[in-house]
Each structure stands twice: as C-alpha cells, then as structure tokens.
Write a structure and sequence with these properties.
By secondary structure, the protein is mainly alpha-helical. It is built from five helices and two strands, in the order αααββαα. The chain has a two-stranded antiparallel ribbon with strand order 1-2.
Length: about 130
C-alpha cells in the first residue's frame, strides 16, 4: 500500500510539472503572438508607457493579472512604483489560452510562481472593477 501511495504521489508531482511545462510552452507562443509588441521580448515594457512584466509587483495579485489579460485594462495602475495610465484591450483569448500565457508570464524574466493557473481558475475571474 505504501508503495502504491508513493507512486501516486510522485506521478502527481510529475504530472503537475509536465502540465506547467506544457502550459508554459503554449503560453510563450501566445505571448509572442499577442503581447511581445508592447511588453517586448524581455518583458520590460516601456517605462511610463507600457508596464513591465519582468519582476513586476502587479503580478503578485494573480486575480488582477488574469483579469487584465481576460478583459483588458484601462486607466491608471502602478507597477513597481511607476504609474501607467494607458489601455490594453482584451486579446480575445480563450480561458485555456489565458491560463497558458499567465503561466508563461508568472515564470519568465525572473518571475517565479508556485501556482499553476488553469482554465477553471480563469473561468471564475469575472468582469468586475478591481
């Protein structure tokens, strides 16, 4: 019984790592298609105009991060102490795609996250003012 539980535990960890890896790779492709023009390949954005994603304190609020990708973001936000007062339209991505690009962003350019965002989480993020 102990061996069976150990195998189940180890296979669950391997599946989670593989799932994040797969999601990360899909998210990178989506980032390159939809986000790179403004946030740049290095995730640094353009100071005062386009907020960075690299080491961005805004990403600490996962719900706000997902909400901004899903519904866009309009009006002032502060990222790493700098105010940005622009607009980002929703990209028209599906919930699974939003999960993938979020996982990519949360694990790139010095960002690290213990969370794996999935489609179910994205579905629960509704269009409300944050």
């Amino acid at each position: 019984m102990k061996i069976t539980l150990l195998f189940f535990f180890l296979s669950t960890i391997a599946f989670a790592q593989q799932s994040l890896g797969d999601s990360y790779e899909r998210g990178k492709l989506l980032y390159d298609d939809f986000c790179v023009r403004c946030h740049l390949p290095n995730g640094l954005g353009e100071s005062g105009l386009v907020p960075p994603l690299s080491n961005a304190d805004f990403l600490d609020d996962i719900k706000a991060t997902v909400h901004s990708i899903k519904y866009g973001i309009h009006g002032p936000i502060i990222v790493n102490g700098v105010e940005y007062n622009g607009s980002m339209s929703p990209m028209g991505l599906g919930d699974g795609e939003i999960a993938d690009v979020t996982n990519f962003i949360l694990n790139s350019w010095g960002n690290t996250s213990d969370l794996i965002i999935d489609e179910q989480y994205v579905k629960k993020v509704s269009e409300i003012k944050l």
